[in-house]
Amino acid sequence: MPHDEQFASDNYAGICPEAWDFMARANTQDASAYGEDPWTQMAADRLRETFESDCEVFFVFNGTAANSLSLAAMCQSFHSVICHELAHVETDECGGPEYASNGSKLLVGDGPNGKLTPESIERLVTRRTDIHYPKPRVITLTQSTEVGTLYTVEELKAIREVADRYGLRIHMDGARFANAVAALDVSPAEITWKAGVDVLCFSGTKNGLAVGEAILFFNRQLAEDFEWRCKQAGQLASKMRFISAPWCGLLENDAWLKNAQHANACAARLEEGIRQLDGVELCFPRQANAVFVDLPEAVQTELRARGWHFYTFIGGAARFVCSWSSTPERIDELVKDIAAASAA
Amino acid sequence: MPHDEQFASDNYAGICPEAWDFMARANTQDASAYGEDPWTQMAADRLRETFESDCEVFFVFNGTAANSLSLAAMCQSFHSVICHELAHVETDECGGPEYASNGSKLLVGDGPNGKLTPESIERLVTRRTDIHYPKPRVITLTQSTEVGTLYTVEELKAIREVADRYGLRIHMDGARFANAVAALDVSPAEITWKAGVDVLCFSGTKNGLAVGEAILFFNRQLAEDFEWRCKQAGQLASKMRFISAPWCGLLENDAWLKNAQHANACAARLEEGIRQLDGVELCFPRQANAVFVDLPEAVQTELRARGWHFYTFIGGAARFVCSWSSTPERIDELVKDIAAASAA
Amino acid sequence: MPHDEQFASDNYAGICPEAWDFMARANTQDASAYGEDPWTQMAADRLRETFESDCEVFFVFNGTAANSLSLAAMCQSFHSVICHELAHVETDECGGPEYASNGSKLLVGDGPNGKLTPESIERLVTRRTDIHYPKPRVITLTQSTEVGTLYTVEELKAIREVADRYGLRIHMDGARFANAVAALDVSPAEITWKAGVDVLCFSGTKNGLAVGEAILFFNRQLAEDFEWRCKQAGQLASKMRFISAPWCGLLENDAWLKNAQHANACAARLEEGIRQLDGVELCFPRQANAVFVDLPEAVQTELRARGWHFYTFIGGAARFVCSWSSTPERIDELVKDIAAASAA
Amino acid sequence: MPHDEQFASDNYAGICPEAWDFMARANTQDASAYGEDPWTQMAADRLRETFESDCEVFFVFNGTAANSLSLAAMCQSFHSVICHELAHVETDECGGPEYASNGSKLLVGDGPNGKLTPESIERLVTRRTDIHYPKPRVITLTQSTEVGTLYTVEELKAIREVADRYGLRIHMDGARFANAVAALDVSPAEITWKAGVDVLCFSGTKNGLAVGEAILFFNRQLAEDFEWRCKQAGQLASKMRFISAPWCGLLENDAWLKNAQHANACAARLEEGIRQLDGVELCFPRQANAVFVDLPEAVQTELRARGWHFYTFIGGAARFVCSWSSTPERIDELVKDIAAASAA
After folding, report:
1. What Cα–Cα distance (Å) separates residue D319 from each residue in A238, C95, D9?
2. Is pLDDT above 60 for B80?
């Protein structure tokens, strides 16, 4: 049975055809190592065009590295980073940011639907200013969030205002950035640098690559000597073209956006199906490619027995994530099984 | 002109067919992330068979990470690591080991042909024992070395004796480990754990992968919780199967060994060609897949003008490295051009 | 007016006479540096006698260093340390533990009166076991706590049981350890190693020294090469005797215990005085040398205007801390002023 | 026999009378912690006067910390620090700088008499510019050097020129800075910021304190948030006044300079005495308070048997260091014993 593991996470999906095609093209001959190849140049240039910005672009292997190294570039070890209590950097990176920064503390804020509010940020900044408290220097936002919701342009701008007031920088964890762009129907520029984002980690892996995230520094000063940081941290690929060429595949003809639109549409179809079911509730507004459903433990067990894969989120909700490889047929089957398991 | 960049380094080569094939196979359906997939299990098992050892196996993205993280697991920040003055960890990893270990100093030893001698190691251990000097805890050896030479089984055992005398652990940087096995015509077990190696970093990238190194802990105690270390350091691939499945390709039917034998044979052909040339000398014994040639700067410039790629090594020698993708035709052309450039 | 800053913290007090006397004795002639002097030997030996244990003893400069370095010795960067949400390591060391350990995350638990409960610890250990969550390895307890309360021997043993169940080590932040011993009327051994504590940071500074904390490893294995760690971290005093000789002063004739008893008695007197006041409530049981009082902001402002020094704690309470240098006269004056300010 | 350990190092000496006196004064009443006391303000102001500079001033516990933290503030983990092969940071701090900076490599240069030459620095900067080599960012100079010699103002300015050419910052390890000022007979300003030094670590311990080094940032930008760095690294003294008040003692009436002049004069007397001895040679020009003598191992053994303390330096020379507490009588006795032991 193909695709039998879909819905657990968008990183369970494979390599999308456009990425595969460019990987094959890059493999027709030898090429210079460490990013000194034409594919890497091309991928960076296309990202700059896509974001309408002369930003600095770097490629690293995975999301934890992208977040950790870019945050380390945005502050010192004795500074702190403000994040939502559900942020991936806080809950799922095993101390990666603290390791890369040699000790920057994460200060945990809150807000409904997985989104930091300006008030929560301000509270963390102003409650103490003594030297026993690590000085806040960065705000990190996940777009779309860990619970599949979205920051609007207005919400981002309101956070930028707080940031400006207290001299903070804004980092965006874009593990599902493509899904956010697709869902908000805005340009990449509008929800990043035009809304005050200094640095974006743009995930290729969850969008259809085998491996490889792009880090975009719209605030170019923060990128000073960043290539050395990547090298030292074991994040400089020798055969870089096998990260960058697939990125070219994603960027050509907007495959990245189509992949995201497809995943979002699949999640919308799942949401719609679930809304038809009596007594089954969503936990968060479904806005991008993830659907969080309040299912009793017994129902979740039954679904797993039927071969479905999904995560149980903090608090007990079932999380279903759609990807470029999700299919309407399987979604409909899933809805049917949720109905059956819930009825039992 | 295909393959026009060959000889600069074995990481200029692409993905070998066996690896490509398994990557394609792994892409036929979704799979669990973070190594919980059948390919990763299979790759680890095949490595254990290949090394006749129930060792612990981990996969990381690149060689700097493999070296840095495994060394960090073998000592504490206030310990030191003994390496040859030409060792990659000392000269080409931008402080990666010091970063991952949070400060372990590299103590630089020496020995002819890029190989640490037992005497040099002993000297570094015994010259001081006070607490102002970071306590030696690990010896790291590169096999084959940075100048393309080999440690014999006997040499390794002699180093093991010193290690035992002073309570040191032995790490092997196997960026070109396959080439060493092929050249020495020994089993992988014989030149690793049977000769006293505690931990091996076995490079897949230089052998024909897009990305991905295996770390083998023969001393299993040193591997305690190492998966957490990888995760924290941004070295846990979410789509791990795209590293491990290609490894299965390398390991099936000994493709890894054939790739190495081919590269070594190409280097031997190059050596032979050069030996015919009057007044052109090798700098080090050619033992694996690298050939170091004493060429005047003007000759090197001329060769580059003719489109050849190679590194100029410390001291001025030209370094030519062969890979799985090298071809006899190009080697013969290279020899001809060296002859012509040298005669000019 | 002498002592006008007392009550803000016990580190506002000066050097007690016994410590001063030994500092003077140590200054009568030259001595070997870096702890190779007779005073350091004597101080370590007396600590071993006092604790009835052949523990390993090290001296460092301050409490943040003592906590950070000992915690770093008890786990790896990818492990985590369980602490109370009010713990000094979490709230007041500016990321010191994360810095020294290169990234170990603090997991924040809770419990009434500033004390971690076994249940809270167990919850943090069992809620997740995946590699995206830093593996719990250490529990840190503050004795007496940040709110001036005490862990009883029974409470410590109950926590040791949880620790044993999950392979955790126990660290004790003894910034006010002397006050705890004095208040509980137990032997130092009984509330440390006999109750399952592996490592104790015993503060000398808050007890009457100018500078200098002792770290005691009852679990001697954890102390392996710890002297190198101190050296590397800038915590090895060259003129060590000026830390260790004053410690001898504290340990001779139990001056450390008398200092603590005095401070506790002063706090008891303050508590008693406040209990006489209508409408003024304590926030936590007064058990050692700190008194937390629920005073309106206006009252606190008035007290400060009258020249009193104290901290306003999280939540708004006024914290008064007594030390070896506190005097009954000033306490009575303080009570009178609290009465007057509250009545206004 | 008093002072029987003198000559091993200037950190074998005790606390000088002026420092002791101010320590006593600071102990007459309670004072605010963490540097918010009048002594710390006074000490910083007097340092600014002494250096004729509105520099930023911080106090830390010891020299390893002062060097490590200030170097960490001057570069990033992937940068490198150029030092002389005999520099204390390289040979005697157990990886302290690498630890505090989270991995900055020390690049080892050379030059006669323990002094880095501009040529040696330039060679290290220009030999490689690729990202596998940590980018040079700081030069560190020891004044007076580890072999007791001095950088002249002209030599410093020549190094500043190289620094400017390559965008490097200059750090001065002033473990024996006072001795250099005394010996060169220049103002502190002239051999620091006027000669291009960005940051100075000025040792109080070797000059007569129990503990405590001052870090002066003439380049104030480099001091941004440095107080947080000190706090995080466990280098913020709670009872700071017991570091700063003794500094006031050193600075009042130029006690620091007199202490240094005395130590230098003692070393000159020792030099003179030794010059009278046939067949006994100095290893380096005696310029400050240290005398390096080429003595056979047997002679050194004999001297130790007679109760003398001194270090045997790399290469075998005997190192004698004078301090504020050295006495002419003991120097003359030492000379006599060297004569006797050499004649035997």
Report:
1. 49, 41, 9
2. yes
